[in-house]
Write a structure and sequence with these properties.
Distance between the termini: 38 Å
Number of strands: 2
Order of helices and strands: HHEE
Structural class: mainly alpha
Radius of gyration: 14 Å
Length: 65
């Protein structure tokens, strides 16, 4: 297995709690959930070895309050 990079990450308490709850639902650690979500975003960003259209760069609307 390739060595993993360590990256410091700061999250709001609300976002952390939301990710922690989601991770628990998916039977993952918070770190595992963040890695999974980032991997899925990168995978969806690519399509047949190319980047998908510009509409992917439109920020999603989240209520993180």
């Amino acid at each position: 297995m390739a060595e993993k990079k360590q990256v410091p990450l700061r999250l709001s308490e609300k976002l952390y709690n939301d990710i922690a709850a989601w991770a628990e639902d998916d039977f993952r650690s918070v770190n595992g959930q963040i890695e999974y979500l980032l991997s899925e975003c990168v995978r969806q960003r690519k399509k047949d070895g190319k980047y998908v259209g510009e509409e992917i760069d439109v920020p999603p609307k989240f209520d993180l309050r």
